[in-house]
Amino acid sequence: MAEKGSESEWVVMATGRSPTNIAVIKYWGKRDEDLILPINDSISLTLDPLHLSATTTAAVSPTFSRDRMWLNGKEIPLSGERYQKCLREIRKRANEVSDEKKRIKIKKEDWDRLHVHISSYNNFPTAAGLASSAAGFACLVFTLAKLMNVKEDLGQISSIARQGSGSACRSLFGGFVKWTMGNNADGSDSLAIQLADEEHWTDLVVIIAVVSSKQKETSSTSGMRETVQTSALIKHRAETVVPARVLKMEEAIANRDFASFAKLACADSNQFHAVCLDTSPPIFYMNDTSHRIINLVEKWNHSEGTPQVAYTFDAGPNAVLISPNRKTAALLMQRLLYQFPPNQESDLTSFVVGDKSILQDAGVTSMKDIENLEPPPEIKDKVPHQRFTGDVSYFICTRVGSGPKVLTDETLALLDPVTGLPK
């Protein structure tokens, strides 16, 4: 058994932070439900973990009587098959861990008998279509792998994260990431690869309009299943449309070609939601506010004759808007604040979060500045102008960011180093 001199009361911990990601070529539909194997490749941007990430602390101790997990401070059951698969696969690959300073040695064979405590925290809403499960499972697997001294590379670890939540595999890397669907029946070649790191295209600015942070009515898991079973369009999308788009999107990213990137991202988002509508019964992830945001971007892009902004929506109403540079992002922020101003009782500092410096770039420093915004030129002559006060809960301004990191500062750990229980 694990040794520590004559004592057996010790706790070994690891803490990690993993980002979320937003797909610009969407994953929708599985060919194997158990292994979470997709029917097409997908491509995503990893978002800056400072603004959107999961933090997880995993601890092991001979005093723990069972595996336990807490999410955002609340204990949740670990009995679910997805959690069990991730734990099983990481334990299988565990190696010896020794801490000479604390005189602790965990042998490879001990991991099957030792129990773990896991605490995870998302710094953004869970299950609202912001890929919280992607960040969560990526962080769970990454942190457990660090705790158990797993030697496999991130690509291999991504195929374990995939078994928790499909898109989690893409959160094992920063920058621009492709999830290759793979061909093997066991899923061993269905994993994430990095197309370019976060330094490749640093001009991009991402603004997320959080239309609703409520849990969605149709989960992605059941939505996909229903689409694969009932949509006549999904086969054509997976077999014909997506493979061509993936090649074009890889090229657009490699060349930092924003016009092509934007056209592909918007088209693929719209087709994903069309496939949801083609499902029986139809699935509605977007709402009226989502549609108004699309119209705002489409009118602007059309009036300029070239894409100013790309939009993409996952399985939820929240808009992810990508601008080619700060200047365009500031003009977008003005348009968004004009059309979707906050309620009077709102506070500007909580209405725009993340990289708040975008407000200065947009010339907005107070609620009065929002009231005084002029309608943008592309709608100026189209009267009356409607403003939809309070329809957007808040905005997050962020950028393309890095992959998972180990947090060595013990004050950031979510579990107590003595008891192994949440702080």
Automatic annotation (TrEMBL):
<dbReference type="InterPro" id="IPR029765">
    <property type="entry name" value="Mev_diP_decarb"/>
</dbReference>
<dbReference type="GO" id="GO:0004163">
    <property type="term" value="F:diphosphomevalonate decarboxylase activity"/>
</dbReference>
<dbReference type="GO" id="GO:0005829">
    <property type="term" value="C:cytosol"/>
</dbReference>
<dbReference type="GO" id="GO:0005524">
    <property type="term" value="F:ATP binding"/>
</dbReference>
<keyword id="KW-0752">Steroid biosynthesis</keyword>
<keyword id="KW-0067">ATP-binding</keyword>
<keyword id="KW-0753">Steroid metabolism</keyword>
<keyword id="KW-0547">Nucleotide-binding</keyword>
<keyword id="KW-0443">Lipid metabolism</keyword>
<keyword id="KW-1207">Sterol metabolism</keyword>
<dbReference type="Pfam" id="PF22700">
    <property type="entry name" value="MVD-like_N"/>
</dbReference>
<dbReference type="InterPro" id="IPR053859">
    <property type="entry name" value="MVD-like_N"/>
</dbReference>
<dbReference type="GO" id="GO:0019287">
    <property type="term" value="P:isopentenyl diphosphate biosynthetic process, mevalonate pathway"/>
</dbReference>
<dbReference type="InterPro" id="IPR036554">
    <property type="entry name" value="GHMP_kinase_C_sf"/>
</dbReference>
<dbReference type="InterPro" id="IPR005935">
    <property type="entry name" value="Mev_decarb"/>
</dbReference>
<comment type="similarity">
    <text>Belongs to the diphosphomevalonate decarboxylase family.</text>
</comment>
<dbReference type="InterPro" id="IPR020568">
    <property type="entry name" value="Ribosomal_Su5_D2-typ_SF"/>
</dbReference>
<dbReference type="Pfam" id="PF18376">
    <property type="entry name" value="MDD_C"/>
</dbReference>
<dbReference type="InterPro" id="IPR041431">
    <property type="entry name" value="Mvd1_C"/>
</dbReference>
<keyword id="KW-0756">Sterol biosynthesis</keyword>
<protein>
    <recommendedName>
        <fullName>Diphosphomevalonate decarboxylase</fullName>
        <ecNumber>4.1.1.33</ecNumber>
    </recommendedName>
</protein>
<feature type="domain" description="Diphosphomevalonate decarboxylase-like N-terminal">
    <location>
        <begin position="19"/>
        <end position="192"/>
    </location>
</feature>
<comment type="function">
    <text>Performs the first committed step in the biosynthesis of isoprene-containing compounds such as sterols and terpenoids.</text>
</comment>
<feature type="domain" description="Mvd1 C-terminal">
    <location>
        <begin position="206"/>
        <end position="407"/>
    </location>
</feature>
<dbReference type="GO" id="GO:0016126">
    <property type="term" value="P:sterol biosynthetic process"/>
</dbReference>
<keyword id="KW-0456">Lyase</keyword>
<dbReference type="InterPro" id="IPR014721">
    <property type="entry name" value="Ribsml_uS5_D2-typ_fold_subgr"/>
</dbReference>
<keyword id="KW-0444">Lipid biosynthesis</keyword>
